């Protein structure tokens, strides 16, 4: 498993737009835990 | 051809939203319907197209080191570039006041829909970003600067209209309840950013 093993790293998550997707996922987790934050539409 | 290249680059390769992530606040807040998004996008095109050339003149005839030479050769050593932020913002704020008056007079419905986000164009990052990129890239003439301002404005307009159209459609889709609204908008913006990364490295 040295140097990542079978997985070949394509560095997808260090691209700049991935910051937005990370924020989206954080919002998803936060709103799943606190359902009062759901938006109507 | 130089002008066309700067224009197309400003829209696609160096898109304000998807390449530099500037002006995200009004982009996320006003993109609920295409109509208001279109209005704000046009206002941003107008403000960028006016302020970038004005700031270009300010930069080259007042602020840059040696720019005051046209008054008197004795001023050649004066460097006022430390004032550029405050001067650029002053120009932008006055132009936004002008846009606000025009929109209030000719499109009162749009004025009501945009609400606080119309005067907030004054502090929109993409507008000051346009002025600072212009300063950084040292365009050879005011024509290039104007075309750059218009191009990045059109890029911003394209981005906000595209996300508004997607958000109008996605309202009828079965998005997981916690992701509805802002969450899915962030994720779609990220995916669009990746799509726009495919324009990187294109030389026109």
Kindly describe this structure.
The complex is a heterodimer of chains A (41) and B (204). Chain A is mainly α and 41 residues long. Chain A has one helix at 18-33. Helices cover 39% and strands 0% of the residues of chain A. Chain A is elongated and about 45 Å long. The termini of chain A are far apart. Chain B is mainly alpha-helical. Chain B has one domain. The model of chain B has no long low-confidence stretch (mean pLDDT 91). Chains A and B meet through helix 1 of A and helix 8 of B.
Following the backbone from N to C, one meets helices and strands of chain B in this order, namely: HHHHHHHH
Uncertain parts of chain B? none
Largest interface (C-beta under 8 Å): A-B, 21 and 22 residues
Strand content of chain B is: under 5%
What is the arithmetic mean of pLDDT of chain A? 86
Helix coverage percent of chain B: 55-70%
Separation of the first and last Cα atoms of chain A: 46 Å
Largest sheet of chain A: none
Approximate shape of chain B: globular
Name some characteristics of this structure:
heterodimer, A: 41 residues, mainly alpha, 1 helix, 0% strand, B: 204 residues, 8 helices, 67% helix
Q: What is the fold's blueprint, element by element?
A:
The complex is a heterodimer of chains A (41) and B (204).
Chain A: H1 18-33
Chain B: H1 2-13, H2 24-29, H3 34-63, H4 84-106, H5 108-114, H6 125-137, H7 142-170, H8 182-197
Helix pairs in contact in B: 1-7, 3-4, 3-6, 3-7, 4-5, 4-6, 6-7
A few lines on this structure:
Chain A is 39% helix and 0% strand.
């Amino acid at each position: 498993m040295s140097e990542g093993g079978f997985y070949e790293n394509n560095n997808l998550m260090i691209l700049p737009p991935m910051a937005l997707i990370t924020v989206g996922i954080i919002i998803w987790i936060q709103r799943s835990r606190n359902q009062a934050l759901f938006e109507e539409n | 051809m130089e002008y066309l290249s700067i224009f197309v680059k400003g829209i696609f390769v160096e898109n304000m939203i998807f390449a530099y992530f500037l002006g995200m606040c009004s982009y996320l807040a006003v993109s609920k319907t295409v109509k208001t998004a279109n209005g704000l996008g046009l206002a941003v095109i107008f403000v960028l197209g006016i302020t970038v050339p004005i700031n270009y003149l300010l930069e080259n005839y007042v602020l840059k080191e040696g720019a005051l030479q046209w008054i008197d050769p004795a001023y050649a050593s004066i460097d006022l570039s430390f004032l550029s932020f405050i001067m650029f913002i002053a120009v932008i704020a006055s132009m936004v006041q002008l846009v606000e008056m025009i929109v209030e007079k000719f499109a009162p419905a749009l004025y009501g829909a945009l609400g606080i986000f119309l005067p907030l164009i004054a502090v929109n990052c993409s507008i000051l970003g346009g002025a600072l990129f212009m300063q950084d890239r040292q365009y050879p003439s005011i024509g290039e600067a104007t075309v750059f301002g218009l191009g990045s404005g059109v890029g911003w307009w394209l981005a906000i209209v595209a996300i508004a159209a997607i958000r109008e459609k996605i309202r009828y889709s079965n998005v997981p309840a916690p992701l509805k609204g802002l969450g899915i908008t962030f994720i779609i913006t990220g995916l669009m950013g990746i799509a726009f990364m495919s324009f990187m490295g294109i030389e026109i």
